[in-house]
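Project channel, design review

CF: Before we commit to the Saccharomyces cerevisiae constructs, I'd like one complete example in the thread so the newer folks can see what an input/output pair looks like. Taking YOR228Cp-like protein.
RD: sounds good, go ahead.
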Amino acid sequence: MALYFPLHAANTLITPAVSPDSAPDDVLMMVREILPSITTKLLVAGITLHVSAGVLLRIVNNWNKPRRNRHRHLKISAEQDLSQDSIGLTGGISGYLFGLYKTFRIPPQVISGYILVPVLIYHLLIMKWLPNSISTEVDFASIKQLLSSKNRWWKWLGGLVPLAILLESGVYHIGSGLCRYFGVRKMTSRKKWSTAINLLTLVGFVSLIRLMKEDSTKLGPNQFESIFKKIRLLLHVN
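CF: and here is what came back for YOR228Cp-like protein:
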């Protein structure tokens, strides 16, 4: 798991931005050779455990919140709570730019996790589970075909939109989580983390655009035709 995420992130976010031709598939094949065949199962198990623990922790925190508030309502403090639970990484754009930190009822890291779960399930569905069920594999050539498809539903709702949401929410969730894990509390350091997260997200969007602009007519039959056909059958859609 510790090896998978850095390799996968580098190959999906950075490599296509540098060279969208054959380099992403070359790295993908290398990663598949390095990692064991049960990587997907381990990944799903780890994500399930992470989500379950996060939901349970959220329930416990909400359960205890009124009790904490009753103890705190007599305390008057001129200092704003600058923890990630209160303002996220930097307190929004106003906090990042001007030091006017916005507080959030639900921490941005939690919100990004809520957003991430359904798009991650969809990602696994079309990239792993359905291809495995029809004995095929999805590579970057397939992604190029999906992102350049003439079918607008496939291209936008099936490809670009969920991939963009996955990219944005995933980079923020993991980046802010690492910031919390390493105990980064100083605001100047957190702003540097935020800058790195934003830059990595920007590079990821550049990668998506470059993949979308690739000529997919020379890549053979579109593998996603059979994948989305399977989805239509599962949903009983003609």
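RD: helpful, thanks. Residues 68-77 have pLDDT under 50 and may be disordered.
CF: The longest helix spans residues 39-72.
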